[in-house]
Amino acid sequence: MSSSFSFGFGGDDIEDDSPPAPASAPAGPGPDHTAPPAAAASSSSSAFPVPGKTQLPPTGHDLKHMLAQLPSKVAFSTLDVALDDGTTIAIPRRELHDVKTGVYEGGFKSWESSVDLVKVLASGGYLDALKDRPLRVVELGCGTALPSLAILQWAMRYATERSPLLLTLADYNPSVLQLVTLPNFILAWALERRDQSPAVQEAFALEDELELTPEVLQQFQDFLASSHISLNFISGGWSQELIDLLYESQSKLDQQTHESDNINKDFDTLLIGAETIYSPFALEAFNEMVFAILSKEKAERGGSGCGGSQEAIAEETEGVRRGVVSCTLSSSG
Q1: What's the pTM value of the predicted model, to 2 decimals?
Q2: Nearest CA among 264, 244, 245 for reference residue 254
Q3: What is the C-alpha separation between 33 and 23, in angstroms, rounded?
Q4: Would the CA dihedral through 153, 156, 157, 163 be positive or negative?
Q5: Domain limits of the chain?
Q6: Among positive and negative, which fits the CA dihedral 254, 257, 259, 262?
Q7: Among residues 321, 319, 317, which one has the least CA distance to residue 5?
Q8: Nearest Cα to 268, choosing from 326, 331, 185?
Q9: CATH (residue range 2-12+58-331)
Q10: How far apart are the first and last CA of the chain?
Q11: 3-class DSSP string for the chain
Q12: 146/155 Cα distance (integer angstroms)
């Protein structure tokens, strides 16, 4: 049994996009120009922990409800990540030039730290658990969720030989989860399956654009169910309440997986985060969140120690630098 943590810390983003334009009324009723209700940001809240400012409360989001709030189509591009073994993985990302939110959030962009983390996941053997036992992945501050998207793509290629996969995506902003994270997962699935489904192939009629027809969305849900892949979305500030919600929602998913698949194995947990943080206060909150989850995992699993200590994580995240830090909890039984 093991629980792994990888921390990517980067200072540069990997694209030169301009921020979305200030909020304005759309010229017409185009469905892809109006943010859904979940995308509305609170003007009294901050995107990161700031002393004296109210944080958004931890909130779980139902997948079916999120799917119902999607536009009729999404534009996208792909990011080619060169891996250490010489291969390349192409990860799709929704283009947000058509979204006007009024506030530019870092979660809408992809950062170099997330690319670093994708490379580490590919070379570190972290995904071997997919072939042997159920795997739970938790990505903190997910944003565009490049690391989790890479895991999904690899999992789809292991479809006939892997165990169940639970993917939990946590981001402060519900708007990021709705407008970026979920569409990216649909895109990753659709690009992998386009040659196997006439409906998906037809949805790619226009270059770099995917139509989110009811049939496509239903096939996406059917794929998740038949492949034993679960998506769990949580928004809100880093706090003990978020941790409680994280484990509460995961417990329900675990139970559903055990009941539907008659699986009597515990899940290994892979905790990942690729964050670019410039605020010491926010960094402290993030570290406390990570340490609390590691401590809970160790207590529940009877962990005997952490290879790559928590002290090392704290040291590596002090100051401004870029790198990936890992911590593995080994079970005592």
Answers
A1: 0.77
A2: 264
A3: 11
A4: positive
A5: 2-12+58-331
A6: negative
A7: 317
A8: 331
A9: 3.40.50
A10: 8
A11: CEEEEEEEECCCECCCCCCCCCCCCCCCCCCCCCCCHHHCCCCCECCCCCCCCECCCCEEECHHHHHHCCCCEEEEEEEEEECCCCCEEEEEEECCCCCCCCCCCHHHCCEHHHHHHHHHHHHCCHHHHHHHCCEEEEEECCCCCHHHHHHHHHHHHCCCCCCCEEEEEEECCHHHHHHHHHHHHHHHHHHHHCCCCHHHHHHCCCCCEEECCHHHHHHHHHHHHHCCEEEEEEECCCCHHHHHHHHHHHHHHHHHHHHHHCCCCCCEEEEEEEECCCCHHHHHHHHHHHHHHHHHHHHHHCEEEEECCHHHHHHHCCCCCCEEEEEEEEECC
A12: 14
Write down the residue that tokens 């690729």 correspond to: 274
Q: Give the CA count within 13 Å in the CB-facing half-sphere of 1.
A: 15
pLDDT (tens digit per residue) in 190-214: 999 999 999 999 999 998 999 999 9
Rounded distance between C-alpha atoms, residue 297 and residue 331, angstroms: 10
Q: Among 263, 317, 268, which residue's Cα sits nearest to residue 290?
A: 317
Contact between residue 168 and residue 250 where contact means Cβ atoms under 8 Å apart: yes
Q: Give the least confident one: 116-125, 208-217, 265-274.
A: 265-274
